[in-house]
Amino acid sequence: MHTHLCHHAEGLPKDLARRAVELGLSEIGVSEHNPMPNDDFDQWRMYLSKLEEYLAALDDARAAFPDLRIRSALEVDYLPGHEDWIRNLAGRHEWDYFIGSVHYIDGGWDIDNPGKLDQWRARDAYDVWSAYFERLTAAADSGLFEIIGHPDLPKKFRFMPNRDCVPLFERFLDVASARGVAIEINTAGLRKDCREMYPSLEFLKLASARGVGLTFGSDAHQPGEVGMNFVDAVALAKEAGYRDCLRFEKRRVRRVPLD
């Protein structure tokens, strides 16, 4: 979940927590987009100077809703060559988890940016998906993350390859399984052009067969999106063969039955 600090979302952690309590949730995590060393890296992440404000806002939410467990996290872009920066961020706070995600596959192209659809139109979709999963596999293998976020993100705008992507999925999932890295069901895909959760049922079945752990995220960018479609997400997980999911505290994992 995201806050106003990333410049493209609304609300404070306290607002997200209030909605979670209304829904009857017992535990949530807020995972703002990670800062970079330079604030002009792009226009949709928290500034480094706001990191302490972010952590203070999480404490405010805990004080306002003491019966709700609120985990502190970051959604961290995996960019080759920036591993030391990710480790730097990890040492700045006792985080509960890091969600590793891939938005950039080369240069300055963030593939989920609606303002850059011309890049998709100029490229072969399978080449983009291949480059994306190569980087996502490296993220899973890096040891820097507990969870990999929205794992089939390239489907967002429905630029679908005309070749079978299952081998790309399997290679990533084999590494995630070997490294003990979870994936998430991210319900925000239902609110995008693809009209499908991230990842697909086919992907989830492959993950379940390999014992890859699972978490749930709404990827909320405003309080009204907190917990959206979680009932549907649990049903999807069960259809794929999952019987439990994971929660994290201070980067340690525990398993929770879906029922």
Present the secondary structure layout.
Elements: H1 13-23, E1 27-33, H2 51-64, E2 69-77, H3 83-90, E3 97-101, E4 104-106, E5 109-110, H4 117-121, H5 125-141, E6 147-148, H6 166-179, E7 182-186, H7 201-209, E8 214-217, H8 230-239, E9 244-249, E10 252-257
Parallel strand pairs: 1-2, 2-3, 3-6, 6-7, 7-8
Antiparallel strand pairs: 4-5, 9-10
Helix pairs in contact: 1-2, 5-6
Q: Would you give an account of this structure?
A:
This protein has helices at 13-23, 51-64, 83-90, 117-121, 125-141, 166-179, 201-209, 230-239; strands spanning 27-33, 69-77, 97-101, 104-106, 109-110, 147-148, 182-186, 214-217, 244-249, 252-257. It is α/β, with parallel strands linked by helices and 259 residues long. Strand 4 and strand 5 (109-110) form a beta hairpin. The longest helix has 17 residues, at 125-141. The radius of gyration is 17 Å and the shape is globular. The chain starts with 12 loop residues before the first helix and ends with a strand.
Summarize the structure.
By secondary structure, the protein is an alpha/beta fold.
Hey, roughly how much beta strand do the residues contain?
15-25%
Helix/strand structural class = alpha/beta
Helix content bin? 25-40%
Which descriptor suits the 3D outline? globular
Gyration radius (Cα, Å) is: 17 Å
Average pLDDT rating: 97
The CATH C-level class name: Alpha Beta
Major sheet details: 6 strands, parallel
Query: What is the CATH superfamily label?
Result: Metal-dependent hydrolases
CATH third-level topology: TIM Barrel
Order of the strands making up the biggest sheet: 1-2-3-6-7-8
Q: N-to-C terminal Cα separation, in Å? A: 23 Å
Q: What pattern of helices and strands is seen along the backbone?
A: HEHEHEEEHHEHEHEHEE
User: DSSP helix count?
Assistant: 8
Low-pLDDT residue intervals, each spanning 5 or more residues: none
The CATH architecture name reads: Alpha-Beta Barrel
How many separate domains? 1
Number of distinct beta strands: 10
